[in-house]
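Hi all, long-time lurker, first post. I run a small reading group and we've been trying to get comfortable going from sequence to structure in the token notation. Rather than ask abstract questions, I figured I'd post a concrete chain and ask someone more experienced to write out its structure so we can walk through it together at our next meeting. Sequence below, copied exactly:
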Amino acid sequence: MSIFNISTPEALHSDPFTMIGKEWMLVTAEKEDGSVNTMTASWGGVGILWNKKVAFVFIRPQRYTKEFIDAQEHLTLSFYDETYRKELAYFGKISGREEDKISKAGFHTIQENGYAYFEEANTVLKCKKLYAQELTEEGFFDMELIEKNYPLKDYHTMYVVEIEHVLTKQENDS
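-- Answer (accepted) --
Happy to help. Here is the structure in token form:
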């Protein structure tokens, strides 16, 4: 069993380009009824906005996880080591509408006070939603981005979330 140490966002000293762009992350939310869904994401970032430590993530409108994110005030961003690459790829391909992908992948959900994340993570960002905005064609300056990334015109919603806590895994010696 894993135990997580809780700290502030300032304690996060990892390279976000590697964490998000190469290692990927799971975006996870819990609905009021206790159901949880997650998806793999590799677009996003971290920084300072409105004098807050924030992360931003992008979710396409057809993703089932978007329903969970829109229904709640909180979400988590969780990160994993290379041994979970196969599961992260699976979470990015299969919809939670089709099957219980969390159980099928063998992940163990931790749910506490409106946050949901997984025991298998090595780092978890517990976040509070601050802002959401749908991307629009009119907002793009480089039209090649639309051609390359949005052939179906299914523009992402950008979520800006405040990083409230950072959890880092500490293996239990017992």
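A couple of things your group might point at:
The beta strands are 2-7, 25-30, 36-41, 44-49, 52-59, 74-79, 109-112, 115-118, 123-134, 157-171.
Residues 4 and 169 are 4 Å apart (CA to CA).
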